[in-house]
Amino acid sequence: MTDLPFLPFALPEIGEEEIAEVVDTLRSGWVTTGPKARRFEEAFVQFMGDASLQAVAVNSATAGLHLALEAVGVGSGDEVITTTHTFTATAEVARYLGADVKLVDIDPATLNIDVGQVEAAITPRTKAVLPVHYAGLAMDLPRLLALTRPRGIKVIEDAAHALPTTLGGRLVGTLDSDATVFSFYANKTITTGEGGMLVTRDAALAQRARVMRLHGINRDAFDRFTAKVPSWYYEIVAPGFKYNLTDIAAGLGLHQLGRAQAFQRKRERLAQLYDEAFADLPLLRPPRPADAADLHAWHLYVVRLTDEAPIARDALIEQLFAAGIGCSVHYIPLHLHPYWRERYGLSPAQFPHSQHVYERMVSLPLYTRMTDADAQRVIDAVRRALGR
Ligand SMILES: *Cc1c(COP(=O)(O)O)cnc(C)c1O
Questions:
Q1: 62 lines ligand 1 (CB under 6 A)
Q2: Catalytic residue ranges
Q3: pLDDT in tens, 210-230
Q4: pLDDT per residue as tens digits for the range 169-199
Q5: pTM exceeding the 0.90 threshold for the entire prediction
Q6: Which fold has domain 260-385?
Q7: What is the DSSP annotation of 177-238?
């Protein structure tokens, strides 16, 4: 059907600076966590523009979410509330700690967790809420905090899609939750291959995450009593994890972070092209920030077919693939996956908005290496598939 090469759903943008930095790391002899991981953490705090934050580099957002929940004391007997409309990583970390997951529906206007549903799901066992800034659009964190704060419930933001995203002019990461976790997985807005960053203003949380990130090793405890710690000495204070970020990855991250704002502008431009081209089609375009001055990270560009569309979602995806265009679905909601469905006896009727959206949604290619011509190819294929 097409002579053009396949247009993938996502591709990372790795430049010569990143490649040179990785080569430098390899030549340096320091390939695991070292000076570059430290520099990446410092650069991340600078990027956030808030010196009261601490950044803890980890080898995935999943690891960061696990560390954050561990650090706020989530454990067996506790409940953690999150959205059904997310990747399983958001929820699985609560299960690692023996806590139970309460999935709630989304607000169809934003595709973010419905804060009213969170309120309804709170019980005396609720220990934490894990909101997701879906697709890179900020969820209404102030409204959530108004609910959780008086009840002593912790809030850990899953910001895997949200670099950079703002809410009321403030970057996600600098808002008022207990911790925020970013992902640098291959298809995220910046990438280190695999990697993540936990940020928090809570010094005790950051300290616990640092210790648990690497086997529960603590040298600081020793520092307090001795002027000089012998280089070989350490103490194990807990059965920690192996979640440290390598300097190879951190070197990539330093350069990717430097390009994050430019990447966002490129994504914004592509989203704008799509928005304009799809205005007359039988589909819902992605929601935008309530305040037009706020940044959307545009990790995903998600359209939803309306009932007027001549074809169903699966057929649209097939036609796009036939036209040489990759696309995806974010997400198959957790309530449909066997593990979550069976463990908690879930059914689609409990999540009508997520279910409705899932059946009609497609994520189109949106990444910085796309040219305007690539975007036009996607536009033409979508218009053709919808009979225009
Ligand atoms: C990608 C993603 C994660 C996990 O990120 P990793 O860095 O791969 O662990 C978590 N939550 C959401 C919403 C994601 O999209």
A1: yes
A2: 188
A3: 999 999 998 765 555 556 778
A4: 999 999 999 999 999 999 999 999 999 999 9
A5: yes
A6: Aspartate Aminotransferase, domain 1 (3.90.1150)
A7: SSEEEEE--TTSSS--SS-EEEEES-HHHHHHHHHHHBTTEESHHHHTT-SS--TT--EE-S
